[in-house]
Design brief:
flat
Length: 62
């Protein structure tokens, strides 16, 4: 697997207690907890990611 370029969410807490990072990997979006980058990451398809983030933006998920 190639080295991924991880980007921290702009909504992560400044204190570092709730940090999520994502990376694009082909047609997948990889998601991980930046507090423990050695843990497994989750991957989802781009379409699912767009639906998920869209629902969050609309306040449909808490």
């Amino acid at each position: 697997m190639p080295e991924l370029k991880w980007v921290k969410s702009s909504h992560s807490e400044a204190s570092g207690n709730a940090c999520v990072e994502i990376a694009v990997f082909g047609d997948l979006i990889a998601v991980r907890d930046s507090k423990d980058a050695e843990l497994a990451m989750a991957t989802v398809g781009r379409g699912a990611w767009v639906q998920f983030t869209g629902a969050l933006a609309k306040g449909l998920m808490a």
